[in-house]
């Protein structure tokens, strides 16, 4: 299906940052509203996003098609990659292996999360205004909570380590020192984003999310 061409690799790398990386950051900022502002603030952010002009077209062209290419080609790379961690236990070899593993986990998690949330809204099984209540039901389910934590950490690691690789492959961090500094920066980003995402997930466990806020009820 794919040829491991220069163009395919570059497109895969670029789409992992623009727009897929932007989508991950936007998702983080939206969900973090649940922690920093509560149920009403979270819904305000959700409504603002869904009131953007041509939002469905933006989602399809700007998110789902690039995400589908990045995911499918990423699975192809993971399947064909020759991982030699057992023979060469260097740090970057470990990161290469983890990038492939977290890519597969992230793909499964995003598909599952999409099915549980956005797809259910599209089918009419969950009202858009009730997405906070729906997330409360998910977050208070122990099995789902563990699955989401694993998926979140995998997705953020895949993004952060992928950014390190992106900067190398596009000739931005070319020397050992620059790459070493970049490692520290992106591992820091990984820690901060993971904490923010998990705080957002735990915020949905608050009883305030078990029912619609007054501003929506009215």
UniProtKB/TrEMBL annotation:
Transmembrane domains' residue ranges: 12-32, 52-76, 97-115, 145-172, 184-205
A Pfam family recorded for this sequence: Sdh_cyt
Coiled-coil features, chain-numbered ranges: none
Keyword field: Heme, Iron, Membrane, Metal-binding, Transmembrane, Transmembrane helix
Location of the protein in the cell: Membrane
Protein name per its UniProtKB record: Succinate dehydrogenase cytochrome b558 subunit
Organism listed in the record: Paenibacillus ehimensis
